[in-house]
Amino acid sequence: MPVDVFYYNIILGYLHGLENKYNEAIEFFEKSLSIAEKNNLIFPKEFSYEAFIFVYNRLFNLEKVIYYQFELIELNSEMLLLSRQRNLQELEAIYKVQDIENEKTILSEQNTLHKVTIALEKSKAINLKIFLITLAIVLFLIIMAFYFNKKKSKQLSLQNKLIEKQKISLQDLYSKELLLNNKLEKSNETIRKTFSIISHDLRNPFNALLGYSRLLAEDYNELSEEEKISYIGTINKVSEDNFNLTQNLLQWSLKQHQGYKLHKNNYILKEVLEQCIASLWGVMTSKKVTIQNKSDSIEVCIDKEVLLTILNNLLTNAIKFSNTNGTIIITNSIEKEYFTISIKNKVNKISKENLEAINGFLSNKKEKDTKNKEGFGLSIAKEMAILHNGVLNFESCNDTIVVTLTIQSANKI
């Protein structure tokens, strides 16, 4: 049976995938998908897409994961469309049966009236001697007519109740359809946002890698051995941070359908800030901007990856709008179980529209213009700050901007 062969290949594929034999697992999954497509098996096809997402996720092949996520969403849309078509066909069948029953009732009434007419015509030919019999027949017909009218009223009442039930069923189907459409829109919005996050957050670490590697490529002979070793170590460190950030973003995108749970541990705040600043070295160098980390070496209980994503977005925007050869100053303060990080810098002239956009994103007055890179970065920062029971504030005075991030630590500081 095709279904048995399909599940045989699926099981073998998962077993090979769990043993890290990914090529063999992919071959078995491709066989199962071929069987599902050849025999038009909807649910096995869905299992095949989920299997591919499983193996490519373990291979960290983001492109393949996103491709099969799209295929899975498209298949779900087809299943929804088929379900709607089946519901419509069932309703059409119900209405056809009801029309046939109505036609039968009308024909029955017409036959009855025809019989009554024939009886009345015959009664005219009957002489006076059978008057009593005729009268009895008339009374009988009147009683029968009353009975049929009463029966017809009951049938009409039942039909009206049936129509009301059908209306309620149609409303329920419409409500379910709206709910499914909303889920589909949210799923599509999650995928779109995932692409935007990856594009936005992975750019800066790669700039740092390009900056250090360019120095090694162009000035290799002029650099001392200590400088070469330092640059190579920095490239290795930024690469590891970039890998961790990529893995974190992938996990974040996959958990959007399930809800993200924080993984808090104790960290030194100053060291977390230094790690974020190091990943932005390439951007800082190209803009000739320096960052002074004046924060304290306090211990905070946080989700490190969430905080790094917030800081990456805030510092990226601060660097972009800073004056050339400018300085960004980072400080912190503590109040009970909350700690606050302040980012202060002097900026080029910012348009009124950009100021309104920043205020909008940080004050929850704007959510829709995520096509703007700065706005989207602030939107991501705000979303993750809320996830960490935090809040972002924005202040501007002439050419100085101060952005503060207040976050609740798991334990009192």
Describe the structure.
This protein has 413 residues and is an alpha+beta fold. It folds into 3 domains: 2-59, no CATH class; 80-199; 224-408, Histidine kinase-like ATPase, C-terminal domain (Heat Shock Protein 90, 2-Layer Sandwich), CATH 3.30.565.10. Helix content is 71%, strand content 11%. The protein has 12 helices and 7 strands. It has helices at 2-18, 22-38, 42-58, 62-125, 131-201, 203-218, 225-254, 269-279, 281-287, 304-321, 352-362, 373-387; strands at residues 265-268, 290-293, 299-302, 327-335, 338-346, 391-397, 400-408. The chain has a 5-stranded mixed β-sheet with strand order 2-4-5-7-6. Strand 4 and strand 5 form a beta hairpin. Helix 1 (2-18) packs parallel to helix 3, helix 2 packs antiparallel against helix 3 (42-58) and helix 4 runs antiparallel to helix 5. The radius of gyration is 37 Å and the shape is elongated. The two termini are 64 Å apart. Residues 365-374 have low confidence and may be disordered.
What share of the residues lie within helices? over 70%
Q: What proportion strand?
A: 5-15%
Indicate the CATH topology of the largest domain. Heat Shock Protein 90
Query: What is the global morphology?
Result: elongated
Number of domains: 3
CATH homologous superfamily designation of the largest domain:
Histidine kinase-like ATPase, C-terminal domain
Count of alpha/pi helices: 12
CATH-scheme architecture of the largest domain = 2-Layer Sandwich
Task: Kindly report the average pLDDT value.
Answer: 80
> Which strand order do you get reading across the main beta sheet?
2-4-5-7-6
Quickly give the structural class: alpha+beta
Topology, number of strands = 7
Q: H/E series, N to C?
A: HHHHHHHEHHEEHEEHHEE
Biggest β-sheet description? 5 strands, mixed
Instruction: Name the poorly predicted regions.
Output: 365-374
CATH class descriptor name of the largest domain: Alpha Beta
